[in-house]
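Thread: Newbie trying to understand structure tokens

Hi all, I'm a second-year student working on a class project, and my supervisor (Dr. K.) asked me to get a predicted structure for one chain before our next meeting. I've only ever worked with sequences, so writing a 3D structure as a token string is new to me. If someone could post the tokens and maybe explain what I'm looking at, I'd be very grateful. Here's the chain:
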Amino acid sequence: MNHFFRSLIPILLFVLGIHSLSLGQAQQTHTVQSGETLFSISRQYNVPVDSLRAWNDVSSGNLSIGQSIIVSRGAGAQTGDAMTHTVQRQETLFSISKAV
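---
Reply by user tm_fold:
Sure, no problem. This is what the structure looks like when written as tokens:
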């Protein structure tokens, strides 16, 4: 029985780690106000202007008042869409990585 619980610990840590990553992945948006620029917004949220351009598909600095832009992708989500997976019985990190 003791061996059973010791073998569960890595699985529980993995599941908790996945859960904490998913909690940190919520993206944050900002509604553009009069007089704001990509530069001023980047300073407000401490994020590079290039990231704001990439996340919002903005090639020029032109923003519209009332426009909603992404200012944070959250932890673990860098440029693409995030994926989630519900861990099934007997799955390992290796087997999940091969399935993706």
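A couple of things are worth pointing out once you decode it. The helical segments are 2-23, 38-45, 49-56, 93-99. Residues 19-23, 77-81 have pLDDT under 50 and may be disordered. Feel free to ask follow-ups in this thread.
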